[in-house]
Amino acid sequence: CLGVYGLIMPMQRKLKQVNEALDVMRTGDMSQRVPVEGYDEMASLATSYNSMSDHIQRLIEAQRELMRAVSHELRTPVARIRFGMEMLADEDDHEYRLQQVEMIDKDIEALNTLIDEIMTYAKLEQGTPSLDFEKIVLIDVLKQVAVETEALKTQKIIHLNPLSSDVIVDAERRYLHRVVQNLVGNAIRYCDHQVNISGGVNHQTNMAYVCVEDDGPGIPEEDRKRVFEAFARLDDSRTRASGGYGLGLSIVKKILEIMGSDIQLYSESGKGSTFTFELEFERSYVPELVIETP
After folding, report:
1. CA 100 to CA 88: how far, in whole Å?
2. Which of 28, 86, 124, 180 has the fewest Cβ atoms nearer than 10 Å?
3. What are the phi and psi torsion angles at 196 (to 5°)?
4. Distance of CA 271 to CAs 50, 196, 213, Å?
5. DSSP helix/strand/coil, 196
6. Which of 17, 13, 10 is nearest to 32 (CA)?
């Protein structure tokens, strides 16, 4: 009995630590962690508990940040819509009323865009969505994004570099389109005249890649990591004028992480910025055209 008691006591002590941590968690304090001792099943339980606590804490902090940012972002278009409605009620001039209606319509579209960005970000933040990977001709997605962007009549030049149709990537088409679309949209907002879209195969990593570059002012070195944070604004007034919400690049990073990839940023002051990411490609195809990464 003494021997069994000696074996049970350490386990009972560890179980008590887990129960105490759970009691603290129920109060709303997510900072409590369980010490990991040894390599037995109780140590595995403590490790799982700590990982779960870290994940829940990140979700709660992300939710709080999201709520603060959303409430801040919604105020401006809602205030403009309210102001426009008041002006419509007091104005008899037909042309002016049409102008106010058009401005209200733009604010409503801005709200729809913001809601779509928030829903996408929240879905990605909650966990890993199920992906339907398929063989995708890379140039088809790049062409689609280029055509859709040109249709917006941004007065900027969209240049798509030649790319062989033999470059086939393994990806979720919807999310790949969203990544390229967000990168090109971001480049359009900050470029001076032109955005270049290119793709190919990087023989050093044996991966297919996509590259989006602009000729804008560039990003300071100290801010290059912040651009991928949700609702991050490096230049608040300029970002508001361009219609950005600070979610586009954070969504790009989240999607690529889920797809097993990452985003690389190259930027030089006064010479623009270049965003590059890599994907698995179909190795049974031999690309006719290879473009080196910058």
Report:
1. 7
2. 28
3. -105, 130
4. 45, 13, 10
5. strand
6. 17
Other beta carbons less than 10 A from residue 237's beta carbon = 8
Q: Where are the alpha helices (DSSP H) in the chain?
A: 2-26, 41-90, 94-126, 138-150, 173-190, 236-242, 248-258
* 15-45 per-position pLDDT tens digit: 777 777 777 777 777 777 777 777 777 778 7
Torsion angle, CA of 87/88/94/95, rounded to 10 degrees?
50
- Kind of pairing between the strands at 157-160 and 168-171: unpaired
SS3 153: coil
Q: Letter for the amino acid at 3?
A: G
Please give the Cα distance from 226 to 219 (Å, whole number): 10
Q: Which pair of structure tokens corresponds to residue 13?
A: 């002590």
Residues in the chain: 294
Q: Which of 279, 171, 277, 281 is nearest to 228 (CA)?
A: 277
Q: Which of 177, 206, 183 is nearest to 196 (CA)?
A: 183
CA angle (267 as vertex; 244, 240 as ends), nearest 5: 15
Reduce the secondary structure of 14-58 to three states and give it as a string.
HHHHHHHHHHHHHCCCCCCCCCCCCCCHHHHHHHHHHHHHHHHHH
Q: Is the dihedral of CA 35, 40, 42, 45 positive or negative?
A: positive
Q: Which of 105, 112, 110 is nearest to 84 (CA)?
A: 105
Mean pLDDT, the chain, rounded, equals: 78
* Contact (Cβ atoms closer than 8 angstroms) between residue 198 and residue 291: yes
For tokens 């990452």, name the residue: 262
Render the burial of 105-118: b for 16+ CB within 10 Å, e for the rest.
eebeebeeebeebb
- Would you call 269 exposed, middle or buried from its count of C-beta atoms within 10 A (0-12, 13-18, 19+)? exposed
**Three-state DSSP class for 264?**
strand
